[in-house]
Amino acid sequence: MTRVFVSRDMASVALGADDLAQAFARAGCEVVRTGGRGLFAIEPLVEVETSEGRIAYGPVGPRDAAAVLDGTHANRVGVTAEHPFFARQQRFTFARCGVIDPLSLADYAEHGGWKGLEAAFRLSPQEVVDAVKASGLRGRGGAGFPTGIKWQTVRDAEADEKFIVCNADEGDSGTFADRMLMEGDPYCLIEGMAIAGHAVGAGHGYIYIRSEYPFAVRTMRDAVARSAGRIAPFTLEVRVGAGAYVCGEETALLDSIEGKRGQVRAKPPLPAIEGLFGKPTVINNVLSLAAVPFILSEGAEAYAEVGFGRSRGTMPVQIAGNVRNGGLCEIGFGVTLGELVNEIGGGTASGRPVRAVQVGGPLGAYFPPAMFHLPFDYEAFAAAGGLIGHAGITVFDDTVDMARMARFAMEFCAVESCGKCTPCRIGSTRGVELIDRIVAGAPRGAGMLEIMPQMRNARTAARTQDEEIALLRDLCDTMKFGSLCALGGFTPYPVLSALDHFPEDFGGASALPEAAE
Amino acid sequence: MTFTREKDFGTPEAMGAAVSLTIDGQEVSVPAGTSIMRAAAMVDTAIPKLCATDSLESFGSCRLCLVEVEGRSGYPASCTTPVAPGMAVRTQSDRLRKLRRGVMELYISDHPLDCLTCGANGDCELQDMAGAVGLRDVRFGYEGENHLEGCKDESNPYFTFDPTKCIVCSRCVRACDETQGTLALTVDGRGFASGISASQDESFLSSECVSCGACVQACPTSALIEKTVIEIGTPDRAVVTTCAYCGVGCTFRAEMRGEELVRMVPWKEGKANHGHSCVKGRFAWGYAQHRDRILNPMMRGSVDEPWREVSWEAAIARVASEFRRLQKEHGARAIGGITSSRCTNEETFLVQKLVRQGFGNNNVDTCARVCHSPTGYGLKTTFGTSAGTQDFDSVRHADVILVIGANPTDGHPVFASRMKKRLREGAKLIVVDPRRIDMVRSPHIEAAFHLPLRPGTNVAVLTAMAHVIVTEGLVNETYVRERCDTDAYAEWAEFVSEPARSPEAVEDLTGVPAADLRAAARLYATGGNAAIYYGLGVTEHSQGSSTVMAIANLAMATGNVGKDGVGVNPLRGQNNVQGACDMGSFPHELSGYRHVSDSAARSLFERDWGVSLDPEPGLRIPNMLDAATDGAFKGIFIQGEDILQSDPNTTHVAAGLAAMECVVVQDLFLNETANYAHVFLPGSTFLEKDGTFTNAERRIQRVRKVMEPKNGYADWEVVQLVAHAMGLDWNYTHPSQIMDEIARLTPTFAGVNYAVLDQRGSLQWPVNAAAPEGTPTMHIDHFVRGKGNFVVTDYVPTDERTGPRFPLLLTTGRILSQYNVGAQTRRTANVEWHEEDRLEIHPHDAENRGIRDGNWVSLRSRAGETTLRAKITDRVAPGVVYTTFHHPDTQANVITTDFSDWATNCPEYKVTAVQVMPSNGPSDWQRSYRAQAEASRRIEPAEPAE
Amino acid sequence: MMSNDQRLVHMAGQILRNFAAQGREEAIAATAEHLTLFWAPRMKARAIAMLEEPGAELPEEVRAAFAALRHPA
Lengths: 517, 946, 73
What we know:
Chain A is globular and about 90 Å long. Chain A is of the alpha/beta class. Chain A has four domains: about 5-85, Glutaredoxin, CATH 3.40.30; about 105-305, Rossmann fold, CATH 3.40.50.11540; about 310-395, Ubiquitin-like (UB roll) (Roll), CATH 3.10.20; about 400-515, Up-down Bundle (de novo design (two linked rop proteins)), CATH 1.20.1440. A five-stranded mixed β-sheet of chain A has the order 2-1-3-4-5, with helices on one face. In chain A, strands 13-12-16-14-15 form a five-stranded mixed β-sheet. Chain A has a four-stranded parallel β-sheet with strand order 8-7-6-9, with helices on both faces. Chain A has helices at about 10-15, 15-25, 65-70, 85, 105-110, 115-120, 125-135, 145-155, 175-185, 185-200, 215-225, 230, 250-255, 285-300, 300-305, 335-345, 380-385, 400-415, 420-425, 425-440, 465-480, 485-490, 490-500, 510-515, and strands at about 5, 30-35, 45-50, 55, 75-80, 165-170, 205-210, 235-240, 280-285, 305-310, 310, 315-320, 325-330, 355-360, 365, 390-395. Chain B is globular. Chains A and B meet through helix 18, helix 19, helix 20 and helix 21 of A and helix 2 of B.
């Protein structure tokens, strides 16, 4: 019987993978449901097991089964791993994703699973922490804090109880790596968490998954149940969010697990010292924890060998937006932004020129093609006024209105703000109102109240466009340096980068020639 | 006196080792864990702030308090950033000024602008901060999205909530969570839509809010503000004084505008309450100005005549002449007096002095007779002194808390909040109570064990716990050997070890599952520091004293006396029960708990007072009433107590009073007892006099006069007038002189005087040469009596039995918003929470009787009958009914019997066999009493002057 | 309802029962001591007087405790 592989990943299913799988089952094939391979342009994708390896066809539909099986289908991709999109990748974390049946313990073990945990158990907890430090692994959630140092802090904290918390509240638009890993290789995350538990002396872990990821929730719950014996005495449970973006902020996430309103905590105390239920807590992103089994099984050097500057190892970059090859690309740090967008991403889907790329989710900075030489590296991006974040890249062509994108950032912040700190709570709403006025080219005249004779201190003269833009910059300054967490603190990145790189969209002087057309 | 606000350091005090840093170049040394904000405040560097206040943990939301720290990037919030050695902090720079102004600009873009007519004008932190950061222009304008359409919530009788003034700093929510522990408030919505919500978006009055006032106090603006401030304006002076409600003894700043009280604000320095309060002390002081208050002395020939207002001279003369006549005709012991636990130590001392010195007998008793007299007997017998062993702060170190016969969230709410805070931190709770009180399960608190015993079986339950501790080898042998009388221990241990005392053997009797009782006993004995807190559910039984001793036995056997975090702690019902007892109000004891038969003690007083004292104990209140019906007791001076409503078996009390020829009542109002009085002397409130109260932790605190007595005299002055009229040579010109006399005559008070009290804020007795700063924890190295005394406590069932005619057990208690007989709280807006007493009955018992929720029911016992409305709830077990006794219309004490504690005659309020039946109107007693009360309260209009 | 004399007898009986675990003689002695310390002269006098009154119904132990009282001044 012919074995075929069809993804069960949520994105693949959305594109029709379920129907495809049924069609191949009806055609008498043994259908193995795997995770997603990560290139959406060729989904729905089916891979046929042959003597030359897995031969991929995509996109294909349920009616194409016969043509696929006899090898005549026009959308024959060939050996999957040799496709240019995959060939350049360095899949350390995502090695098994798309290859194995995610819930098969046998598949997992066959493909190198549990080797990291076994290696960890052969080491002392301190040696495990040392290995993670030596790998140079940094927090993949966005902040880029060295994972080993965080673990060391938790390990050194005295407490009767410690926790491992996995942040799987992947809320950035245009990001999906956490979801793909949880749906495609859940045991990898579980193994990483068990290693962390061993390293810091924690007995229990939580995986906090956003409610918008029902497939991941189901898969992780299933995987946790099936692997319970393998990771004992370490135990895990899955918690589901309730739709708040801010719960992806680590301290709000902890409050949410504790059953409270998801609201950001002030730091210090660091979660590593006083985290979940007041106990020392490792809180790491899915990708950080999932990188750990490789580090333990293949050695810290093997991981650290790849990378750029202080950014070591690989990053699962997620390319989305107006791009031809949208998908997941795990690659060593140091690849340039231009390579990611144009070579791996293949330029815009619309075929029009790229105008802007937003890196790091909805709170990341916009970069013009003039900056495509930037190497993918935490420090390089910070120096350029941006951030890597969770490594989401959203591509826009030349039809984009950057003032609207700036407004969107403020609006996003207003919608998702937890409401705790003032700059974010009020500032984001004022930001939306202000950008609306700027875009409309209608600077504020004195209000009804301000012209009342009882008001002696209010200015009665109208504000100029430049004053309004200056106010927007001041507001961004207040939010960036005054906000309690990254939501309010990073919202200025897209706004300021749009202002800096695309002033013409804000009715500034450089917009004039276009207007004269 | 000028008005100054209490300094706010922004964040709570820290306790770590000293850390040095510089703030704006100034060298500072503070405890590790201190925030930068607090460290700055300690050197009088004010960092702008809105969401921080030193009664709450730091929160970091307003972002006004940003500072610069050398070597650190960004602008950390000074409230959430702890100091570090060598840290160099800058609190002022151009960058900081710009950031702070930017934040303030956002606040004011969504805030009403009519400050001048705002209730908080002049007392608003937002206003202050706008000034501090120099905000001069709101460049966003005032026409953006805002919250200015919000509706004011005026449902709470004492404060308003105006969401338009709210800056969403969460101080109210955090105060409700951290300080009060009710968790009634929350932030609803998120982002710009965030707003404060009571419970599930309800009005404050209908929400779970208990109106403790913590949120109002925490609010930096006028979003939450006292209605009195809106009405009167901001205060212009403040006087620190002590609350006159329960035995917690909260201290308050009485904030005044002239002679008018604007508000009572809990004092942060107060060692009993640490800046917290409850609805009574904080808000329910309006009775002091109530129109029912009697301000002129009154007399009448007999109790069926109307009252006539007379001069003080005439009233006092009548009192003196009648008392002297009665003594001449019926003997020196034919009259007596009752001191009040509501009055000051000084006043109480004077009343007992009047009786002992002036009446020449020991017929003095106090309302503690009906509440904590068994505590006096029980703790004196076992430990050697009649008082709780700890201070309230001790609960911070308790690992196991056993609450028996107390309902702290209603009766002692401010201490309950402390207890709940400790429980939220992880201490374990055991509740022994027939009712499922709130402590059993409330937000973030759940008792490890609730032992719902049948009323009247306390001794059996506690002895069974002792059985488990002894037979399972959980006794702290070292402690018992070193600290206790080992013979007494051996006898006790043998007694409790008998199989008949086991939890299994008494399970049917007590109704407590044996397994739970065993587990609770193990937890108490092995869970670390274990502290017992108890109330009147322990004392008001026929075995009240035995129960107190059984509690003391448990504490000694497990080594839980003599250090922080443990102890035996009576929660005193009234503000000055402890003090009234200390002052020698009991008929058998002189001040400091010395028996009248002790000739050495007596001679001390005899020398000082120049008289010889009666060495025989006098009559207790119930004995006085018995003697009156026998015709042997003819006159009584009752200060500040309403025995007709508060004492058991009302008909018997009424008969006793009716049999007397001269009943003198001194009170604020024409209380129920005054219906039987011949002379009425108006009393003064705690706001109108100087003195001291002693709370449940033996803490002596000052009561300070904030306004002139509306009736003309403070109560101590009235007692002195009576004394003068009876020929005594008293010359007090200030209560401090009375305290000096108390100190002179009472070894445990030797070091107490007003100067030290003013300087130290409070003192816990004993205060003497050995402990000049007072004694927070007692029995540290040895018990006051030497060796701790184990007392065999055999369970003796009460004579009050259920049977076919009276199949249910009634137990009584009180509720948060009301206080005792309600004389004060019924004359405040607190009635909005509790208009009437209700009878709690289990659904099963209600069903059997065809009773629906809210129905009128008759409640009948062997002693009498009354009617009230039923409240069906499973808080009470089947077979048990419960009511409060705050309202004279109900007269719960018509039902209670005159059975009492074997050792002290403390009434058995907590167990009465009753029947409950549907009813459609008041009982005969209620009808006739109402008519009699109305007739008796008539006041004849004053004769026009010739 | 009890008469005042009955109440005195009842109270004494109650005190006796609470000391009963110590043994009969000890209980009587402890009760007499308790009455001496806490009862007013008038009550003690009635107790002693009742010993002589033929109509007074005194349980044996109560009688013994009353008999141990000294006449107060």
